[in-house]
Amino acid sequence: VERTLSIIKPNAVAKNAIGAILSRFEQAGLRIVAARMLHLSREQATAFYAVHRERPFFAELVEFMTSGPVTVQVLEGEGAIALHREVMGATDPAKAAPGTIRADFADSLTENAVHGSDSAETAAAEIAFFFPEGVCE
Ligand code: ATP
Ligand code: MG
């Protein structure tokens, strides 16, 4: 079975939407197999988003991601990576399909409520980043 790394970003945590968002994952058939809550340091956010460091929005992204606590969870299921991204909706909430998490909980392109791994390779790296001790079977 496939696993993906999911983050509920600071704006969604601030609007008290953790339960609502986790429910959407479960209703889609994804199983939560690991979870933690933390306030990312600048170092952690910079390392996590290292692939975007040359992008014009990088500073704003790190500022936002360190602005408050996040929840990080590993989701498991058949085709979990693509299914999770489908439930999240498009990166830009203006383009996110109705009923998706970003359509309902995003505040802007940067403050778009959730993160999801985009490939098997990034999922493995992102899961190891937040759960270095491993995830139970
Ligand atoms: P994520 O990686 O968070 O799941 P994504 O894969 O849909 O989202 P990426 O292209 O990886 O989007 O961008 C990472 C994050 O950077 C986005 O989720 C968003 O918060 C922010 N971001 C992306 N593009 C822009 C932009 N043009 N302006 C501002 N912020 C942006
Ligand atoms: Mg991405």
Automatic annotation (TrEMBL):
Cofactor or coenzyme needed: Mg(2+)
- Which superkingdom is the protein from? Bacteria
Asked if the Swiss-Prot or TrEMBL record annotates the protein with the keyword Kinase, the reply is yes
Catalytic residues, chain numbering: H115
Q: Where are the annotated coiled coils located?
A: none
One of the entry's Gene Ontology molecular-function terms is:
nucleoside diphosphate kinase activity
Location (main, coarse): cytoplasm
Give the quaternary structure.
Homotetramer.
Q: Report what the protein is called.
A: Nucleoside diphosphate kinase
Its source organism is Thioalkalicoccus limnaeus
Gene of this entry: ndk
